[in-house]
């Protein structure tokens, strides 16, 4: 029997309201190993919830507190994501512990059902925009890969959790993509479609410097986008389908100002 609550010491006080959910995989060989680490005062990491393969949920930190799960990164102009987010660790070996076939270990149905139910209950308790339900890799593309391209984000979106692009909203990227033959762009190269692409990715929430060059930062952000919203095109390259989904998604995100506390100001 999995305990409902095991207290982790790895938290402190929030300084603003909850408006974000960040999903992670544990990336360890077992749930117990992950649990031990998330409760180890020396590790200085935690999460509010852990979801086991069976769908059982263990809470580690009260939602009122600031759990230490996000680390360095940024989303929609916020860099202290721990202070405004709920962190959910989903037990899965991920890229660190692939199957013998080399594939990523699948998330069992019962576990995904539990993720959906937990997120739905969080959404009844806190005001969280769909565009602020993200993966760890979205806020830290250069550092993190979790919850991975094998995580069923589309299924969550169907259940009302998070955004999914409506490709009929993509109007210009089809033409932009036509200018760009597949795999013709190498790192360090400039192209006229890069500047609008970076701007749309920033609108979605990714932190990216301006400019017209396909650089390593952009490739990492594209990979993070693809893990979440285009897992069948996982290349870090701005392929036609990725460009369409990026444009479509950018149109469904309400404008935010690039300043840390804008949501707080909005109340
Ligand atoms: Zn993570």
Low-confidence stretches: 258-267
CATH topology of the largest domain: Lysozyme-like
Biggest β-sheet, characterized? 5 strands, mixed
Helix tally?
9
- Helical percentage: 25-40%
SSE topology string: EEHEEEEHEHHHEHEHHH
Give the distance, in angstroms, between the N- and C-terminal Cα atoms: 41 Å
**Overall number of domains:** 2
Structural class: alpha/beta
Radius of gyration: 18 Å
CATH superfamily (homologous) name of the largest domain: Peptidoglycan recognition protein-like
Compute the average pLDDT: 92
- Morphology call: globular
The strand count comes to 9
Strand content: 5-15%
Side-by-side strand order of the widest sheet: 4-3-6-2-7
Any overview of this molecule?
By secondary structure, this protein is α/β, with parallel strands linked by helices. The chain has 2 domains: 11-158, 3-Layer(aba) Sandwich (Lysozyme-like); 167-251, Muramoyl-pentapeptide Carboxypeptidase, domain 1. The protein is built from 9 helices and 9 strands. The strands form 3 sheets. The protein has a 5-stranded mixed β-sheet with strand order 4-3-6-2-7. It has a two-stranded antiparallel ribbon with strand order 1-5. Helix 6 (194-204) packs across helix 8 (240-251). The longest helix is centred in the middle third of the chain and has 17 residues, at 109-125. 44% of the residues are buried. Bound molecules: zinc ion (ZN).
């Amino acid at each position: 029997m999995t305990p409902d609550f095991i207290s982790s010491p790895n938290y402190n006080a929030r300084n603003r309201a909850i408006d974000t959910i960040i999903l992670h995989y544990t990336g360890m060989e077992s749930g117990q190993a992950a649990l031990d680490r998330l409760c180890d005062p020396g590790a200085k990491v935690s999460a509010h919830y852990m979801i086991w393969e069976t769908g059982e949920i263990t809470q580690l930190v009260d939602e009122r507190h600031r759990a230490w799960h996000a680390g360095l990164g940024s989303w929609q102009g916020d860099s202290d994501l721990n202070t405004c987010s709920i962190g959910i660790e989903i037990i899965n070996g991920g890229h660190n512990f692939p199957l013998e076939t080399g594939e990523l270990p699948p998330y069992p149905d019962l576990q995904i059902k539990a993720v959906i139910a937990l997120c739905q209950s969080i959404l009844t308790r806190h005001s969280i925009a769909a565009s602020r339900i993200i993966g760890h890799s979205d806020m830290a593309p250069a550092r993190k890969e979790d919850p991975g391209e094998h995580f069923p984000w589309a299924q969550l979106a169907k259940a009302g959790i998070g955004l999914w692009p409506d490709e009929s909203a993509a109007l210009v990227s089809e033409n932009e993509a036509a200018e760009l033959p597949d795999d013709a762009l190498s790192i360090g190269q400039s192209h006229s479609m890069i500047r609008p692409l970076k701007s749309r990715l920033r609108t979605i929430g990714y932190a990216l410097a301006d400019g017209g060059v396909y650089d390593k930062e952009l490739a990492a952000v594209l990979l993070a986008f693809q893990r979440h919203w285009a897992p069948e095109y996982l290349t870090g390259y701005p392929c036609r389908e990725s460009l369409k989904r990026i444009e479509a998604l950018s149109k469904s995100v309400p404008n935010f100002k690039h300043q840390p506390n804008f949501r707080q100001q909005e109340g």
